[in-house]
UniProtKB/TrEMBL annotation, chains A, B:
The keyword Metal-binding does not apply. It comes from Curtobacterium luteum. Keywords: ATP-binding, Kinase, Nucleotide-binding, Transferase. This is Dihydroxyacetone kinase. GO terms for cellular component: cytosol.
Length: 575, 575
């Protein structure tokens, strides 16, 4: 929905003014649109593009070095007039003639053609390439009648690059024609769009439905379905475009620029999720992806929709696509040439890197994994109770957060165990998974605690009682670094007594199992005693006055876990 | 509304995968987020940014030369874990230490701080600058508690540029701190956003209302009003930010980077309309605008909203802001240094350039202007009738289109007359205005006809009868160039008989007035006779079968206009 405008009748003009004000480095305002603000060598071809407004960055956003020399900017979704087109062409032209390129729509054809006649009568040679990439808009045997959508960018880009090379008007025209012949797009829409001040949307798509093949001005598509998954949409788009590979091209081994274009309200993150599948499907078809684009390149105001373009390269088109460009909305080739890292460093590392442990430490790792499994079970059993406790003074998500964290840690630990990690590595992996999936403060704290524990335990030996006590103390310190102190009514109220009891028992000569049992009892007693504490100011989000009398869920979940781990340790000791 | 996803639980991860696949030139996947795919000199500082996902291009889109070395990417609107942050920092770090910079949110502070402790324990020095630009989120005397929004970009950019210069960790930190001190943002929202798979929006703003100061995760603002005009919104944003100029800075004469940031569903054209007013208001306040940014820089998924950031420069910050950067979503400094056109050529030329006419031609111009005024009146009188005729075989907009065109031509002609133009210039101006405002086919045709007429008449002399006949014939040829032929049931059916009758009468020695009267009669008879014609196939859009028996609106409006112009010519002749 369009919300920001002054007089709707002035919208397109004011948008053009603002666009130029924001992009003076590249463009200047001329009659009918914009032209470059920079010099071009005499005798080079001027690629002049254009069409209705509402498709930013098409068309003004694509004016600059290596791309268009000027853009005629019509009213919203309406062709510029012949006079506007001619005005832009006169300003943009610098002695090498003019190539008009634009999407194939009746109004644009009418006005650009009229402008071409005027310019020719003034002695300026003009050629025209209409972009016809939208495969839905006419059958393949009537390809010249197809509309132009995001494939505009491919044709404009290579034409602009060829012009920059100083090629003749006929050469630039031939390159643009070949690019158009080798560009195919297919789009879908999920919503219409509304123009400034309009009482009704210009067109509509029913909620949760998808119009297949709808054009960028709401032109009727070929079908309507429920919105598929991102993967399903990618399959639909790729399959349709692989169905119509240009003559003489073999998809397997072909080099292709994919452009996944958002029409306005489909956001980048969604586009990336779809692109992930597009890239995989193209790879499966043997297509080699070259410098893809994912983003908003030819929009339809705030319409929700997506189109996929495949631009089937040849050597010359690839060179021209990769050539530098510097415009308000499309830039290629950085000011600084950065060297690429060696391939070995570029490989995705999606997990943390943990080596194998000594045989001794692998045995300890198995016990730690069993402890994490027990933790997961006890949290599962008490998830509702922990949530209810948290709802009194917090936002009620402690149970769910602990459940997500313990589940993820358990799964990650089991997976790591299969890879032969030591106890330290296993705890590092579990820490990572817990904090990542649990989120929130409890996730951060449990992640830090497990990480510190793992760091202290290491991957080489079976730790002595004293070393376990040191590890527990390191974990406690890591938690205390988050800032809570005993008495704040947090997990720390149970953790600190646990740490003290464990250390004290070990110093008195207790075994790990005995020390742990004693410490777990201390944690339980302290957790129950949190019922008498007042939450620290600022911690309780709601109903703070009711919080006295309720135990702290962080302290209670800690006590539950250390209690259940006692059993695991005793089992281990009994073996 | 988010529509494209697979399993919602995997959304952020899959988006990160797709993002990396689409941007392999710049970034590689590392544990917890992304790092540069390019080399950096040993010993340089790594600026590591991050935060929740859903804010693209923040944060992964800002990784690359001249900006961040890595970005930790959490789940949707959720902080990355300490382990993820540390993972990214380890991968991004190259011997000069790490500067963490991120928006000031509790979860991010918790996890980045925990990661900093881990990294420091590993011997990697870490500094932190939290961005606090959102003026609404806390009062000026508690500025350190403010949230970070689009001002993130200013801080990250200058820190990245300083790191690229090889400055020390303390230097880079000091620069980032100063940038943060001199950056202020203020935002509004018009709608909430919905995360993948969520049944309900995460937060909402009532339809046609504006939440003033709402944060990028829907944090409560300070007020709610009706959505103002674009100008009204610009005033609100600029006024609030000029109210809080950094200490020691005088707004008048200050150099400032304005960033007008769209949060997701407010589109570029709307942003440009608002920016037009922002630029003017800043200029009125004496502020000098430096390299502004208008677009989507820190988003909030598909939330509709806008924020304005003012970044108050000093010499060093300006140099660092202007330094090259090359990242997936933010690039500065083209690969090619283009020379700027001389100032005289950069001035906006919003109208067509028409000189003054000879005194004789100025007299003719006055009669032409009177004819255009008469045309406007007669079209006004018959607008409904023309629309009804068009509705039978077309889309019913012929009357309105002719009305808009004639009105614009009349206004432009009167304005041009005051500037002393000749008849040719006046017709050129009128042609331009008509086609621009009328739009559609009739606008294009009338524009071309008036332009050809003006070109033939010129600006120097009073045309003879023969010259007027030539001009009429030139205008007719310009119309025929659009492709219609007599018998197609178009304006041409009246125009061609008019041209023939006029030429014939002049050749027989008739005065302009007499020839025009005869030609207008011929046009009227021919227009009435279009009732008997069948529209050319493809022309009639609806109810084509009913079109026989209805006159063609284009032919009728032409006849009406030339009839009424007869009176103007006779008046002129009678003087």
């Amino acid at each position: 929905m369009t919300r920001l405008f002054n007089d709707p009748a002035d919208f397109a003009d004011e948008a053009a003014d603002g666009f130029v004000l924001a992009n003076q480095r590249w463009v200047r305002r001329v009659h009918g649109g914009v032209a470059r603000a920079t010099t071009s060598p005499d005798g080079t071809v001027a690629v002049v593009i254009g069409g209705g407004s509402g498709h930013y960055p098409a068309f003004g956003g694509l004016v600059g070095h290596g791309l268009a020399a000027g853009a005629a900017m019509g009213n919203l979704f309406a062709s510029p007039s012949a006079q506007q087109v001619a005005g832009v062409a006169r300003a943009a032209e610098h002695g090498g003639g003019v190539l008009f390129s634009y999407g194939n729509y009746a109004g644009d054809c009418l006005n650009f053609d009229a402008a071409a006649r005027t310019l020719e009568s003034e002695g300026i040679p003009v050629r025209t390439i209409r972009v016809t990439d939208d495969v839905v808009s006419a059958s393949a045997d009537r390809a010249a009648e197809r509309r132009g959508i995001a494939g505009d960018l491919c044709v404009f880009k290579v034409a602009g690059a060829a012009a920059e090379e100083g090629r003749s008007l006929d050469d630039v025209t031939a390159v643009a024609a070949r690019a158009n012949d080798r560009t195919r797009s297919f789009g879908v829409a999920f919503s219409g769009c509304s123009l400034p001040g309009a009482a009704e949307p210009l067109f509509e798509v029913p909620e949760r439905r998808m119009a297949i093949g709808m054009g960028i001005h709401g032109e009727r598509g070929i079908d309507e379905t429920d919105v598929p998954t991102a993967e399903g949409l990618a399959s639909l788009l790729v399959a349709r475009l692989l169905d119509e590979v240009p003559d003489g091209v073999d998809a397997a081994g072909a080099r292709v620029v994919p452009i996944l274009n958002g029409l306005g309200s489909v956001k980048y993150e969604e586009l990336f999720v779809v692109y992930r599948s597009v890239a995989r499907l193209l790879e499966e078809a043997g297509v080699v992806v070259v410098e893809p684009e994912v983003g908003e390149l030819v929009t339809s105001f705030d319409m929700a929709g997506v189109s996929l373009t495949l631009f089937w390269l040849d050597d010359e088109l690839e060179r021209l696509w990769a050539a530098p460009a510097d415009t308000p909305a499309f830039r290629k080739g950085g000011a600084v040439v950065s060297e690429r890292l060696p391939e070995s460093e570029l490989e995705a590392s999606d997990g943390i890197d943990v080596g194998t442990g000594s045989p001794e430490s692998q045995e300890v790792a198995a016990r730690v994994a069993a402890a994490l499994a027990a933790a997961r079970r006890v949290v599962d059993e008490h998830v509702d109770e922990l949530g209810e406790m948290d709802a009194v003074a917090g936002d009620g998500d402690h149970g769910i957060g602990m459940q997500r964290g313990a589940l993820a840690a358990d799964a990650a630990a089991r997976e790591a165990l299969g890879r032969g990690v030591g106890a330290g590595g296993l705890l590092a992996v579990a820490a990572d998974a817990w904090s990542d999936k649990a989120g929130g403060t409890s996730g951060a704290i449990w992640g830090a605690a497990l990480e510190a524990l793992g760091r202290a335990v290491g991957d080489t030996s079976r730790p002595s009682s004293a070393q376990v006590a040191e590890a527990v103390h390191a974990a406690t310190s890591a938690v205390l670094a988050f800032g809570a102190v005993p008495g704040d009514k947090t997990m720390v109220d149970a953790l600190v007594p646990f740490d003290e009891a464990f250390g004290s028992a070990v110093r008195d000569g207790a075994s790990v199992a005995d020390a742990w049992r004693a410490a777990a009892s201390a944690a339980r007693a302290a957790a129950d005693a949190t019922a008498d504490l007042v939450p620290r100011k600022g911690r309780a989000k709601t109903h703070a006055d009711q919080a006295v009398g309720t135990r702290d869920p962080g302290a209670v979940s800690f006590a539950l876990i250390v209690e259940t781990v006692t059993e695991v340790i005793e089992e281990g000791a009994a073996r």
